[in-house]
Amino acid sequence: MKLTLISFILIAPFFTACNSKKNVEEVTTEHVVIEGEELYEVIPPPPEFKSDFDNLDDWLTNICENEPPTKPVKNYNFGLFESPDEHTIFFVGLNKYTNENSSSTRVDYEPENMYFVLPKTEYSNLSVEQVKQRLTMQLKEFVNTTKFKSSYLAEADSVTTDFGGKIWPK
User: Fold this and answer.
1) What are the CA-CA distances from residue 9 to residues 14, 17, 18, 36 (Å)?
2) CA gap 93, 25 in Å, rounded
3) Local confidence pLDDT in tens for the 170 residues of the chain
4) What does the longest C-alpha to C-alpha distance in the chain come to?
5) What is residue 112's DSSP assignment?
6) Could you state, in order of their start, the residue ranges of all structural domains in the chain?
7) In Å, what is the CA distance from 11 to each residue of 6, 20, 118?
């Protein structure tokens, strides 16, 4: 009986620590997206992340003018990380790889400024659905600009979002 009680006392903190770690991991999960039947993952920005840009247009302009990918990208995608305090949009380049047994979608391009924290002044009073609708509208407007059309982004087959579908087909 003493051996069982001592074993429980020694092992219980281990299980508690494992359960605590599991809860932390659930809070900081990766952004996993199903594109058709394919999956790709994007790691969220660190908790202390701050945007270098004042608005979405400045961020998009930076993406267009800087850091083109080093290899061809078929699809550029915008996604959204949501939290109670803020929304962060991200941008990546995706390519699909297929062989005789399987296929996979991989993130082949991550610009240095791949994240942008949406300004609270513009987005804080909106529901998540309204945030997604506004972003989709703003991105569709952006892909119609000369800035976009003269950038490396226009060379891709498509530009999509995780929340609004295709916003630009070639």
Assistant:
1) 10, 13, 15, 49
2) 26
3) 443 333 333 344 433 444 443 333 333 345 555 444 456 889 999 988 999 999 999 999 999 999 899 999 999 999 999 887 889 999 999 999 988 888 888 999 999 999 999 999 999 889 999 999 999 999 999 999 999 999 999 999 999 999 988 998 86
4) 78
5) T
6) 52-170
7) 9, 15, 45
- How far is Cα 94 from Cα 74, in angstroms, rounded to an integer? 6
Residues ≥6 apart with Cβ < 8 Å to 128:
82, 87
- In the structure encoding, which two tokens stand for residue 18, read together? 């494992």
* CB-neighbour burial class of residue 119 (10 A; exposed 0-12, middle 13-18, buried 19+): middle
- Residue 100 tokens read as 């005789």
Q: Residue 91: name the closest of 70, 73, 104 by CA.
A: 73
Query: Does the predicted TM-score (pTM) go above 0.85?
Result: no
d(CA 19, CA 43) in angstroms, rounded, equals 22
